[in-house]
Automatic annotation (TrEMBL):
EC class name: lyase
Source species, domain of life: Bacteria
Alphabetized Gene3D superfamilies for the sequence: Fumarase/aspartase (C-terminal domain) (1.10.40.30), Fumarase/aspartase (Central domain) (1.20.200.10), Fumarase/aspartase (N-terminal domain) (1.10.275.10)
Ranges of residues in domain Fumarate lyase N-terminal: 63-308
Biological role: Catalyzes two reactions in de novo purine nucleotide biosynthesis. Catalyzes the breakdown of 5-aminoimidazole- (N-succinylocarboxamide) ribotide (SAICAR or 2-[5-amino-1-(5-phospho-beta-D-ribosyl)imidazole-4-carboxamido]succinate) to 5-aminoimidazole-4-carboxamide ribotide (AICAR or 5-amino-1-(5-phospho-beta-D-ribosyl)imidazole-4-carboxamide) and fumarate, and of adenylosuccinate (ADS or N(6)-(1,2-dicarboxyethyl)-AMP) to adenosine monophosphate (AMP) and fumarate.
Entry protein name: Adenylosuccinate lyase
GO biological process, one term: IMP biosynthetic process
């Protein structure tokens, strides 16, 4: 058997590439290296703006030329960095050498020794990861997450008045509406949305052990913490003043835990919708040309929600691992975070793939009102709760002498199927006030939904 040509191992880079490709702009090796170039360039500008170590401020054209190294970063730079790293065996050093080469090209050799000045690799890396992760979240993950919320809100509003039999513990229970049940998920997801939107993205730039030691010995008169803070905040990040060699990664753990939490809520949504499909509350809309089963032509499998389930589980497994491992670094530094952080894109990729499937899935289902009504009409015993509650209110008000309303209804309904006629006969004979009796005689499983419809208004 002849060997296959080189193949990708991850389905994110193969089968599902078109869905997650936007993440590659930020969370790929190339995206990380572009951010590293950005950090190196901006640090050069900070140093020269202060005329440190014999330098002079660059003119606007020189600054623009330096920043164009980031804007024009592409395949040529990717290939060149691969060539450099083959020699350096160090990815950040390769970036430093690339920047130095470009300084020569731009006629800026006189500031070459300020490249990577007083910086450890982690000074560059932590800022680069903060930049790429924040951009990936804001530009890719959040817009897709909001699309899910918007699609779900639309369906919640559409189905707000559609009564359905609830199933607590999987058993027939007090009715609700499909819209209210979907609104519950919208509310949950919006809370997490606010938390993700407010997440901090922190950075440090304080040298090999977080003490500014090299900075101070090179120039004692400079307020290096102030310079560091201005530099980090100038990149759009929060400044962390107290670190070891690494930024402590707590903001990452917080973010990944929030994304993982959202995954689990979405997983709950996917399994609920899958179940509603299986019992006929939702019917799936056939997609032109699609095959549900390789052997059973009648089937439309709920593949969107099954695919989402699996990818949400994979995403949470990776993000949970990141959140738990990144917060620990032996004393001042170890390299466990180096290889771990290279999988950030994988964790987000599986989440984005799931979000895409859920949005598509929500657009490929419709409610089966006849099935909802049939289920309700087959379970009149669920009105036992309403009847015994009204009896208790009547007893309390002095309009009934019934001794144990709960036991009375338990005897009538527990483990039994009863119909409308059974309930009418039972209610008509009750020792309760006429107004209460009239309300109960008008009640049906379809109308016993309380405030389910108006509760949807809490979505805003």
């Amino acid at each position: 058997m002849s060997p296959l040509p080189p193949q990708v191992l991850s389905p994110l880079d193969g089968r599902y590439r078109s869905i997650v490709t936007e993440l590659g702009e930020y969370l790929s090796e190339a995206g990380l290296n572009r951010a590293r170039v950005q950090v190196e360039v901006e640090w050069l500008i900070v140093l020269t703006d202060r005329s440190l170590f014999g330098s002079a401020p660059l003119n606007p054209e020189q600054k623009a030329a330096l920043r164009s190294l980031v804007a024009s970063f592409g395949q040529a730079e990717i290939d060149e960095l691969a060539e450099l790293e083959a020699t350096t065996r160090h990815d950040v050093k390769a970036v430093e050498y690339l920047v130095r080469r470009r300084l020569t090209t731009l006629g800026l050799d006189h500031i070459a020794e300020l490249t990577h000045f007083a910086a450890t690799s982690e000074d560059i890396n932590n800022l680069s990861y903060a930049l790429t992760v924040s951009q990936a979240v804001r530009e890719v993950w959040l817009p897709k997450y909001r699309r899910v919320i918007d699609a779900l809100r639309g369906r919640a509003l559409e189905f707000r008045g559609d009564a359905m039999l609830a199933r607590t513990h999987g058993q027939p229970a007090t009715p609700t509406t499909m819209g209210k049940e979907l609104a519950v998920f919208v509310y949950r997801l919006e809370r997490i949305l606010a938390q993700v939107e407010s997440n901090e993205y922190l950075g440090k730039f304080s040298g090999a052990t977080g003490t500014f030691a090299a900075h101070v010995v090179a120039e004692p008169s400079v307020d290096w913490p102030a310079v560091s803070r201005e530099f980090v905040e100038g990149l759009g990040l929060g400044w962390n003043p107290l670190t070891t060699q690494i930024e402590s990664h707590d903001w990452q753990a917080e973010l990944y835990s929030k994304i993982s939490h959202s995954n689990r809520v979405l997983h709950n949504l996917a399994t609920d919708i899958w179940t509603y499909i299986s019992i006929g509350y939702f019917r799936q809309i056939p997609q032109v040309g699609a095959t549900g089963s390789s052997t059973m032509p009648h089937k439309i499998n709920p593949i969107r929600f099954e695919n989402a389930e699996a990818n949400l589980e994979l995403s949470s497994a990776i993000l949970d691992s990141l959140a738990s491992t990144l917060v620990t670094s032996r004393m001042q530094r170890d390299l466990t975070d180096s290889t771990t952080q290279r999988n950030i894109g994988v964790g987000f990729g599986h989440s984005v793939l799931a979000l895409d499937n859920i949005v598509r899935g929500l657009g490929e289902i419709d409610i089966d009102r006849a099935q909802l009504e049939s289920d309700l009409d087959s379970n009149w015993e669920i009105l036992g709760e309403a009847i015994q509650t009204v009896i208790r209110a009547e007893v309390s008000a002095g309009r009934s002498a019934i001794a144990d309303p709960y036991a009375l209804l338990k005897e009538l309904t527990r483990g039994k199927r009863i119909n409308r006629d059974d309930l009418v006969t039972f209610v008509s004979a009750l020792d309760i006030g006429e107004a209460a009796k009239a309300r109960l005689l008008e009640l049906t499983p379809s109308t016993y939904v309380g405030l389910a419809d108006p509760l949807v208004e809490y979505l805003g």
